[in-house]
Amino acid sequence: MAIEQLNEQRNHWAFLAAVITNCTAALARAFSGSKRKLKLVQPDDFINKDFKKIIQQILGKQSSNKKPELSSGYKKHIQDARVKGLAGPW
Predict the structure, then answer these.
(1) Contact at 8 Å (CB) between 38 and 25?
(2) Which alpha helices (DSSP H) does the chain contain, by range?
(3) Is 78 domain-assigned?
(4) pLDDT digits over 55-73, tens only?
(5) Using an 8 Å Cβ cutoff, are 70 and 78 in contact?
(6) Phi, psi of 39, rounded to the nearest 5 degrees
(7) Is 76 a domain residue?
(8) Mean pLDDT over the full length of the chain
(9) Which end of the chain is less enclosed by CB atoms within 10 A, N or C?
(10) What is d(CA 2, CA 54) in angstroms, rounded to the nearest whole number?
(11) Sign of dihedral through CA atoms 34, 37, 40, 45?
(12) Domains in the chain, number
């Protein structure tokens, strides 16, 4: 039942809210003459994070706070940057 509620919220109401928010922001940007890039809102932004965690526990997809594993190509670039003395978020 909880999974059905999540699907209904995401597919109907959260999608509708995201469309309205994005269109309103685009219209405001068009009339203001701003050249800044829009930050688009996703339907998942309107769903409660606690509810998402409960659904993940139900489905057995326990979320972890680990950083995603980098591919070997990215590791090579990071090591190359360290050798050159460049600073970064790593």
Answers:
(1) yes
(2) 2-8, 15-32, 49-59, 72-84
(3) no
(4) 788 777 654 555 556 666 7
(5) yes
(6) -95, 110
(7) no
(8) 79
(9) N
(10) 9
(11) negative
(12) 1
Q: How many residues does the chain have?
A: 90
How many helices (H) and strands (E) the chain has is answered by: 4, 0
Residue 89 DSSP code: -
Output phi, psi for 29, to 5 deg. -65, -40
pLDDT score at 24: 92
User: Residue 84's closest CA among 1, 76, 23?
Assistant: 76
Chain centroid to Cα 50, Å, comes to 16
Q: What is the CA radius of gyration of the chain?
A: 20
State which H helix or E strand residue 8 sits in. Answer: helix 2-8
* Contact call for residues 46 and 14 (beta carbons, < 8 A): yes
- Name the DSSP class of 88: -
